[in-house]
C-alpha cells in the first residue's frame, strides 16, 4: 500500500454523511456482552449493527443535551462532576453487565447507555479510524492479536478499542491515567463485553491493580501491548517477565524516540549491540521485537500534538479556572508541537506569550512567530499562567513556585506528571485546598496561593475533552501499527 493511501486512511474522509431521519435508539440497551470471560473477539455483525444504529440516531444528539432525565450526566464528563462521587471503591462492588459477565471493574455499569452515546458522537468525528474499521471488516488482520491496552479511556479511545476488536483482536484494557477516565464510557465498554479496568480518580494502588488485572488474566496470554506512557510494559517486565517474553510487539507512546534508540544501539545492518552497558532491559527487549512509538509518526505529532493541544489548552483552562485570557502573561516551556499549539491558541486570545526553549531552532521559531524567548527565572515573578510542554522533567521547581505571584495558574501539557515538581509542594509549610475537581490552591504561609491544575498531570486530558477528529488520526495510526506488527 502506498504511503499516500495509508495517510488518506488515517485522516479519513471529512465529508461523510451519515444522517438519517430515524429517531433516537439506544444501541447500548440492546448490547449483549460477548461469551466467555476472556474471549472478547467482537463479532463483525454486532459492530455493523451498532454502527448503523449510530448512523440512524445522530441528528438528534449533541454534546450539550441530555437525552433523558435518567442519564443526564454532564456531557462534560471530564469535570468528573457526575460520576465520581460514589464513596464505595469499584473494587468492592459486585457488578455484572446485562450478559451476566463480571470480568471488568468500572465505577458504575448502569451508566453504560450514556457512555454509548458519547462513543457514537465521537465516531462521527473520527472518519479515519471508522474507514479503517470498514476496510478491514472482512479479512480480520488482528485475529491472532491478544492486546493488553493501557491508554486514557474516553469516547475517542473507545472507538480505537472497538476498532481493534472489529479487526479481530482480543483485548484487555486499563487506564493510563488516574484522572482521565470517562466513567460512563468505561461502563459502555464493559457492557459491550470488553474487560475494562478503569474509573476516574482512582488511587495509585488502584491504578497498578487495574493494569495487573489486564496483564495477569486467567486463561488469557497477551502477545501485544498498546501502551500510552509505558506503565503496562513496565509492570509486565518487572512483575511478569515470563509473560513479557511472549510479547511479540508493542505500540507505545514512550517519550523516548525509537529512531534515536535505533541510531544509538543498532549497527548499519540494523543489528542491535546487546553488549552496550547503557542499554536498559526494555531497550534490549525492543531490540529483539518490533516496537513502534506513535510519537515517531508524523500523522501523530503533526496533528494530535499540535492541533489537539491548540484547541484543548483553552478548553481546559476555561473549564477549570474560568480565566479571562486577554492581556494575561503566559509562559510556555517548550516550543515543540505541543508548545506551538498552546502558544498559537493563547496568542489568539490576546495573551502575551513568553517561551522557554533549549533547542536553538525551536527558540528561533518561537521568536519568528512573535513570542518573547526567555529564561523561566526572568519572567516567573510576573506571569499569570505557566504551562509546561517539554516532555522533560523538573521544568518547574519548588524554587520557581516560591517566586510565582499570587493567583498564578500552573499546569502541564507535556509528559505525564514529571514536568512540574508537585511533590516539592507537599511540605508542612504549605496548605492544599481543593476548590474544584482537578483544581487545587496551594497556599504559602504569607497567604500567597497558586492554582495547580490536575496535580501536574496532563491538563487537557484531565480537565477537558479532546477533539475527536484529531484523536481519530492518532487512533488510526495506532491501529495500523498493530496491524503491521
Ligand atoms: N497534552 C497532550 O494532549 C499531549 C499531546 C501530545 C503530546 N504530548 C506530550 O507533550 C510533550 C511534548 O510533545 P511535543 O510533540 O511538543 O515534543 P517536541 O519534542 O516536539 O517538543 C518538546 C520541546 O521541548 C523542548 N525542551 C526540552 N527540555 C526543555 C527544557 N528544559 N526547557 C525548555 N524547553 C525544553 C525541546 O527542545 C523541544 O523543542 C511530550 O511529552 C508528549 O508526549 C501531550
Automatic annotation (TrEMBL):
Cofactor binding mode and count: Binds 1 NAD(+) per subunit.
Record region (Disordered): 52-100
Presence of keyword NAD: yes
GO CC aspect terms: cytosol
Binding site for NAD(+): 336-341, 357, 460
Glycosyltransferase recorded as keyword: no
Cofactor(s) of this protein: NAD(+)
Keywords, alphabetical: NAD, One-carbon metabolism
Entries under SUPFAM superfamilies matching the protein: Formate/glycerate dehydrogenase catalytic domain-like (SSF52283), NAD(P)-binding Rossmann-fold domains (SSF51735)
InterPro entries recorded: Adenosylhomocyst_ase-like_sf, Adenosylhomocysteinase-like, Ado_hCys_hydrolase_NAD-bd, NAD(P)-bd_dom_sf, S-Ado-L-homoCys_hydrolase_CS
Family of the protein in this entry: Belongs to the adenosylhomocysteinase family.
NCBIfam families: PRK05476.2-3
The protein's name in its UniProt record: S-adenosyl-L-homocysteine hydrolase NAD binding domain-containing protein
Native source species: Aromia moschata
